[in-house]
Model the fold of this input.
Amino acid sequence: MNIIPQLIINSIIAGAIYSLVALGFNLIYGATKFFNLAHGVMATVGGYAVFVLSKVLGFHIGVSVILGVLCAGFVGYGLDKIVYLPLRKKRASNMILLVASLGVFTALEAIIAILFTSQFRTLAQHIGTQRIYEVGSAIITQTQVIILIASLVLMAILGFVLKKTMFGKAVKAVSDDEEVAKIIGINTNKIIGYVFFIGSAIAGLAGILIGFDTGIEPVMGLRLLLKGVIASIIGGVGNIYGGVAGSFLLGLVENFGIWKISAEWKDAIAFVVLIIFLLFRPKGIFQK
Amino acid sequence: MAILKTNKLTKHFEGVHAVDGLSLNIEKATIVAIVGPNGSGKTTLVNILTGMIPYDSGTVIVSDTTHRLKKIKPYTMYSYGLTRTFQEVRLFDQMSVRDNILVVLTKRKVIQSFFETQKSDYTKAANKILQKVGIWEKRNELAKNLSYGQRKLLEIARALVTQAEIFLFDEPFAGLFPEMRKMVSHIVAGLKRKGKTVILIEHDMDVVRELSDYIYVMDSGRLLATGTPREVLSNKEVREAYLGT
Ligand SMILES: Nc1ncnc2c1ncn2[C@@H]1O[C@H](COP(=O)(O)OP(=O)(O)OP(=O)(O)O)[C@@H](O)[C@H]1O
Ligand SMILES: [Mg+2]
Done:
């Protein structure tokens, strides 16, 4: 049996998920210039919000997903207002912000573990009954098709907002030079707040989609964060489109890397890629 | 009416008295020049007035007694009607020339700006100002690809499209060709005609003499002399300390 089509499909699905994480990570990095490590836990928040809404409270699955995405967005927005904004106002260095975000990450992850135990759960409604499509010699599940469509649609929307709307121009200006943006009257803190909302909401969606594809657990955020960060470094940190390219590249390398060896090697491969980039291409593939 | 006042404004950098007990009184709709040798504290003053660095003591009062500011933050200063340009031009380098202007025209309501694409009246306004400073042909280039003089002009244009009442220009003429100097001089005079206030930091005495209504001469963070151009330029102390060099 030819395994290559399946590897390609797996790569693309992984790439789509990583892109969702990298998109928000880069958006936030661009506007604030610090590594927001808490970004990974937004995916966990999204996943568990949907778990509570659909499985505990019995909401319709579609409604749950929408509320779950919003929930992750609001948590991100709240973090900015409660933790990061006060630090920025004190002119805290980016190192301090990074450490603060690490603290936030740990705290939120612990809270989720306390509330929900560290058990692995799936968000899928009826396990084992989902539809499967055959593409040549490869298969793709209905959930995976949805993951692909959702991430492509989201990228298109975000691309449009950033490129075409006045909000997008303001975000770009803040990313380029926040101080000057203030001088010309842009309310930069407000813009950054919205960036946190949007970025975190997208990460929340990633967590939710993973929850349907495989499942959620309190520690899922770290792996996702690392993949998002590696993808961002491959594409050039802060570069939104680069991050998407980096995500798909990482997905490809990971999945083709385990062609002949065990799947446990995936993360190791990802880190080798990271180290290669840090050593030889620290500014990413698009570096001039 | 004084639109901007400072009282005993002070800023030290580890022993350097960059601004040292400076009291200014700037009238609305005038062009006020601030001159002084290198390192006399002119840029530091502008940085304080736009909230980019905190100051040690003294007061700043905007629009008479309405706003007595103990602490200044950049965004608040814009809302009090101040904007500035930089001695070393600061543009949004990764954005196109026209976007540098368009972003200023952004609606201040963030939510609204989501649903707002480039409306034609914004584009029209942006094109108009770019034509005025002669860089319209470059509108689609990235700002970082402009020449030194064009960058300075774009920065001035960006300040012009704000709603500011007070413009602080930090050496807007430095390094410009005669043609561009004329343009900038015309713009500064035009602002005054429209009732705006201009604080002009400038080394070139001919420009200062031609444009300004009032001059503050700074030296080591303090005022060496103040007055109309005629008074200041005939001041013996000033001639010796500054103009003589
Ligand atoms: N951020 C800073 N940290 C330490 N010292 C500073 C800082 N900014 C300015 N200074 C010092 O304060 C003094 C005033 O500098 P400032 O840039 O305000 O002078 P200036 O009048 O604008 O000079 P120029 O004509 O060269 O632009 C100088 O001695 C400078 O070295
Ligand atoms: Mg200076």
